[in-house]
Amino acid sequence: MDRNTHGIESEEPLAPETRAAEALLMGLRLAEGVDLARISSRTGLPVDTLVDAEAIAALPGLIARDGDRLSVSEAGMILLDAILPRVVKVG
């Protein structure tokens, strides 16, 4: 009786780069944004390898970094699908 099982046939760990990219892509859709230090800690990747600081600086008013917190403004949310590939370095 497989009626109450979860359906997962196999489970494979994701590479740190993939985990970091997923955390960034999903987290930047939230109003609070992401904590880069936390993603770094959980993946073992240095903070400076996660995002492109020059791309962030080139998008004032759309995305901002305050210490290790990275967030997208309300205006940036409209353009998020165009912003993410420029900013996210991992994955």
Account of the 3D structure:
With 91 residues, the protein is of the alpha+beta class. The protein is 42% helix and 11% strand. Helix 1 (16-27) packs antiparallel against helix 2. It starts with 15 loop residues before the first helix and ends with a helix. The model has no long low-confidence stretch (mean pLDDT 93).
Q: Give Rg in angstroms.
A: 16 Å
Q: How far do the termini sit from each other?
A: 39 Å
Biggest pleated sheet: 3 strands, antiparallel
User: SSE order, as H and E?
Assistant: HEHHEEHH
Shape: globular
Structural class: alpha+beta
Low-confidence stretches: none
Q: What portion of residues is helical?
A: 40-55%
